[in-house]
Specification:
Layout (H helix, E strand, L loop, with lengths): L27 H8 L4 E6 L6 H14 L4 E5 H4 L11 H20 L3 E5 L5 H9 L6 E6 L3 H7 L4 H6 L21 E3 L6 H11 L1
Parallel strand pairs: 1-3, 1-4, 2-3, 4-5
Helix pairs in contact: 2-8, 4-5
């Protein structure tokens, strides 16, 4: 009989006694009104090679061309700065998503439409981020692209390295990917073009 897996534990964070929440005069609703748009967090999740960054970039460009104030948070880019101290362990991945979720929430409160492209393999982490937003602000887009298609693309050569054992803890090969149970939208980029994927997202916004 398999031994149940112990849930990951994040380090306890104790706020200094002097840390007090500062209430801002300008509310998120007032910022959104000034922007003349409905702020949202559009969260793209899926396997490596599913097309998250490509679709997210095309969506960001389309929104920008139409006068929407948006910003793109990409998984690889964030690991060059904000999260460069994190590895690929289960705890580090959880912390990666927690930090990105906090940044995305701040951007939404500023009135922006923020697009997040992250593998984010665990449901609990995605649900944790969702729970920080008001109802309707968080839009989960699952790129339901088959592993075989993602592995055939292998744009960064990561699957080849994972199969060879060079890369450990690789989602879809040696680490699990937990499919969303209630994503607002599912896209199979093995069938849909980039433009079709973007149009599908725009239709639900």
């Amino acid at each position: 009989m398999d031994t149940p897996k112990t849930p990951y534990q994040l380090k306890d964070i104790t706020l200094p006694s002097s840390a007090v929440w500062h209430k801002c005069t300008v509310s998120p609703a007032e910022r959104a009104k000034l922007m003349q748009q409905t702020p949202r967090c559009i969260w793209l999740t899926g396997l490596s090679g599913a097309g998250k960054s490509t679709v997210a970039n095309a969506l960001d460009a389309t929104l920008h061309a139409n006068g929407v104030k948006s910003f793109l948070l990409d998984g690889d880019n964030v690991r060059h700065g904000l999260n460069k101290d994190l590895g690929m362990t289960e705890n580090d991945r959880a912390e990666n998503i927690r930090r990105v979720g906090e940044v995305a929430k701040l951007m939404v409160e500023s009135g922006l439409v923020v697009i997040c492209a992250f593998i984010s393999p665990y449901r609990r982490d995605r649900q944790m981020v969702r729970s920080t937003f008001e109802y309707g602000q968080f839009v989960e887009v699952y790129l339901d692209t088959p592993l075989a298609t993602c592995e055939q693309r292998d744009p960064k050569g990561l699957y080849k390295k994972a199969r060879a054992g060079i890369i450990k803890q690789f989602t879809g090969i040696s680490d699990p990917y937990e499919q969303p149970e209630s994503a607002e939208l599912k896209l199979n980029t093995g069938v849909l073009s980039i433009n079709e994927s973007v149009e599908s997202i725009l239709k639900i916004l």
